[in-house]
Amino acid sequence: MTSGAIPPPANPLTISQPVLRFIDLEEVGRSGRHMTLFEMMAHHAFNRPDHEVYFKERTVELCHELLSGELGADPRSITYKEEVWEGGGNLGPSLSVGASGLELATLVFMEYVRNGEALTPMPLTVVDTGYGLERLTWASQGSRTAYEAVFGAEYDELRRTFPPRESAILIDHARALNFILSDGVVPSNSKEGYFARLLLRRSIRILSKVPDPPGLLAILDRAGRDIARDFPEIGEHRDDLHRVVEAEIERYAEAIQRARQTIRRQEERVRSEGGQIGSDQLLAWYDSLGVPPDVAVEELQRPPAIPEDFYAQVAARHESERPTTDYIDRTEGLPEVPGAVPPTEVLYYLDPHTLSFEGHVVHAAGPWVVLDRTYFYPTGGGQVADRGHLGDLEVVDVARKGPWVLHRLERDAPFRAGERVRGKVDPKRRTQLMQHHTATHLLNGALREILGPHVWQAGAYKAPESARIDVTHYKPLSKEELRRIDRRVNEIVREDRPVKSYFESRNEAERRFGFTLYQGGAVPGKELRIVEIEGFDVEACGGTHCTHTSEVGAISLLGVDRIQDGVVRLTYASGERALELREEHEAILAEAARRLGVPVDHLPDGIDRLLAEVEETRHAARAKAKDDLSATAEELLADPARTEAVGGTTVVTARLDLDRAQLMELSRLLGRVAGRVAILAGERDGRGVLFVGSTAPGISAASVVEAAKAAFAGKGGGNPAAATAVGEPGTPLERALDEARRTARRAAGP
RNA sequence: GGGCACGUAGAUCAGCGGAAGAUCGCUGCUUUCGCAAAGCAGAGGUCGGGGGUUCAAAUCCCCCCGUGUCCA
Question: Does a structural domain hold residue A606?
Fold first, then answer.
């Protein structure tokens, strides 16, 4: 709007909107004036050379009239401080307006565009103002802090239990939470969800510090009551908001519970090693376990002092982090189109059923072709592009760039500008995409209906093979919820409701359907394309859709994932593709049943039997291996050539055709009786392996191996009970074995 | 989006380069009219997945996956 690309909805324009501000979070309750949420009122003017609305003088005049006239401020107390404002590449002078030292408004006059160091005048100048409603309220009442003026009785009520700062934080957070939670934000560990979590957990912490505290839900309700008059959805979503908050309370309690346990164990370990918990450990616990320092200290027997600047130190821990922005440029790889090329008339919006058409080539470069009109749908809104043919050539991709639709052909386009060309959209693919897109809207509607109004689309993707929708939700979907969602969407399909796609003015659409229209994100423009599934779901959407729900065909849910904290993904297919998948699945089941030799309906039992059999076989094999080794052990002990008694120690020496693990097991069996030394040799990949086990007191297996390993250039080691070494290929393993035996004998000898 | 912590038996966790453990739960036996309880015995593990280093990896390194948490 400031650049003039999009016309303002009105000129002059007034707006009033709630604004969330998190950077001053620590100041809330402390400064007496900061809040996480406030109402910002504004009046704007967009001055074109041919149409001057108003600029500096009139703006100041209007502001002054409001403050001194309408609101009755003493004109002598009103101050104007001149500053330079810069933002979004634009800059200009600004005035900070205050009364009796309190800043009430900012008046910005955008005049210049910055290009590096150079400033060029803007094609249109803009008046941008901001008046803080809460500040005006405060100024008009003259109370000690803004909280008393703004929150009134709700604040006073909390003051009976809490100190001023805590009372202010509680009521401030409760008001902000009412807004963000009823706006579809679900508490989570990233992005806006984290702000919701932060506000909730800060509130819970404050409440937990007093005995018998008021309930968080009650505080939220009280804070929401007033604003629900202007924002009715806050009242309407009350029950859903309660469920979201309750889930978060529970989750936090679990996290703290786990953390307490971890803290106790860690202190025990540190103390057993003679150490002590330091304040740096408190920081680490807060960071990784989420446990506030005062809670951690409760668990410790010898707690460190909590640093005064604890939260500043937390911030310092995160200072060196550099957020990388994975900015994806959708127009990357697309060719430049000369500005003189006329924009493409897009016909798929109005008529998704016409798939064969004629158009004129208006631009062609390499494989890319722009037509004057097209029915090809370009990739966008989470729906992949159509395929088909232009003339005899295959269209392999379709993309949108600015006002043009670009068709990419399988090879360089033989067309010249002005040429007439026949386009054919692949009907099977298009039908499937339409079914998946409409199915996505159906799922979105059903999810909101069944899970609650906090559900908001967080992403979607519609391909011919399958489609998926990501929605905000605070816990995993239960089997029962999935079943109900499945039933509900297929019910709407069977009811054959009309799906209407039409254009409507933004204001009118918002008035009729509310902001839930913007499931796919904000859409620019004064006109919106609305896709309305009658009586069920309405969204602003540019995709191609069926005209009746029955055309979608049966929808099969294929999977559900939690893709991140607070976001659930459903994958599904409908129409022909759903049938294909069903056939595939049935074939897999039939084949599995055939291989198991059971009827399909006995498959689970058949698998159980098979698993039991496998288990049994494994058991038997293990037992047999053990028996074999036991037999070997008996043989060795009975063989005078391999077993000798020295003092109270029995030394068993043998070279066997066994691997490392088997040598180890055999040594263990020989060592069942105390006072035995097992010196066993085997081979692996042409290298000699020596394994020594000892249950004889005073004879260390490690020292035996240490003494013997030089004989076969071995590397290895171990502990007093067991040790092993592997030699170089071609070295005499026998010598190592002898050396080990001599060492053991010497150690055992009298 | 980034940092940190954590993934080991059905559950909760210990072990942090040398022969996979504890507690609870489970099964059996002893005891009891029976239950609870106790004692004894036993089953249960590709130590999240994949690479690498090493004579030797649950343990060290790298890459994934999952969970938690803090910060934008």
Answer: no
Looking across all nucleic acid strands, the nucleotide with the smallest C1' to CA distance from residue A269 is B14
* Protein-to-nucleotide distance from the CA of A664 to the C1' of B20, whole angstroms: 14
Q: From the CA of A254, how many Å to the C1' of B53?
A: 39
What is the reported pLDDT for A323?
A: 57
A160 and A249 both lie in a single domain: no
Closest by CA position to A127, among listed A81, A153, A94, A86: A94
Digit-coded pLDDT (tens) for A466-503:
999 999 999 999 889 999 999 999 999 999 999 999 99
Residue A324: which nucleotide is closest by CA–C1'? B1
Nucleotides of B under 7 A from a protein CB: 1-5, 12-15, 18-19, 43-44, 54-56, 66-72
The string of pLDDT tens digits covering residues A390-417 is 999 999 999 999 899 999 999 999 999 9
| Amino acid letter, residue A748 | A
**Both A191 and A220 in a single domain?**
yes
Task: Name the nucleotide with the smallest C1'–CA separation from A722.
Answer: B19
CA distances A385 to A89, A97, A463, A471, A543, Å, are 35, 52, 9, 23, 10
Q: Is the pLDDT of residue A434 over 90?
A: yes
Mean pLDDT of the residues in chain A: 92
Residue type, A535: G
Which nucleotide's C1' is closest to A716 (Cα)? B55
Asked if A122 and A155 sit in the same domain, the reply is no
Q: Which nucleotide is nearest to A678 (CA to C1')?
A: B19
Q: Can you give the length of chain A in residues?
A: 750
Q: Which nucleotide is nearest to A676 if distance is taken from CA to C1'?
A: B19
Alpha carbons A437 and A430: distance in angstroms, whole number: 10
Number of domains in chain A: 6
Find the Å distance, CA of residue A683 to C1' of nucleotide B46. 24
In this structure, are residues A565 and A545 in contact, taking their beta carbons and an 8 Å threshold? no
Q: A359 with A346: CB under 8 angstroms? A: no
CA–C1' A725–B56 (A): 9
d(CA A508, CA A538) in angstroms, rounded, equals 13
Q: How far is the CA of A36 from the C1' of B45 (A)?
A: 51
For residues A505 and A523, give the distance between their C-alpha atoms in angstroms, rounded to a whole number.
Answer: 12
Domain annotation covers residue A711 = yes
Name the residue type at position A594.
Answer: R
Q: Which of A65-74, A179-188, A488-497, A522-531 has the lowest mean pLDDT?
A: A522-531
Parent domain of A394 = 345-425
Distance in angstroms: CA A187, C1' B65? 23
Does residue A8 have a pLDDT over 90? no
Angle at which helices A238-272 and A191-208 cross, to 10°? 70
- CA-to-C1' distance for A270 and B22, Å? 19
Whether residues A190 and A281 share a domain: the answer is no
**Tokens linked to A685:** 């990949």
Contact in structure between A164 and A176 (CB atoms under 8 Å):
no
Q: Is A439 in the same domain as A510?
A: yes
Interatomic CA distance for residues A629 and A141, integer angstroms:
92
User: From start to end of A402-448, where are the E strands?
Assistant: 404-409, 420-425
Q: Check whether residue A503 and residue A550 sit in a common domain.
A: yes
Residue that terminates a domain, selected from A117, A142, A167: A142
H/E segment holding residue A135: helix A133-141
Residue-wise burial string across A704-741, b where 16 or more C-beta atoms lie within 10 A, e elsewhere? bbbbbbebbbbebebebebbbbbbeeebebeebbebbb
Do the Cβ atoms of A421 and A415 come closer than 8 Å?
Answer: yes
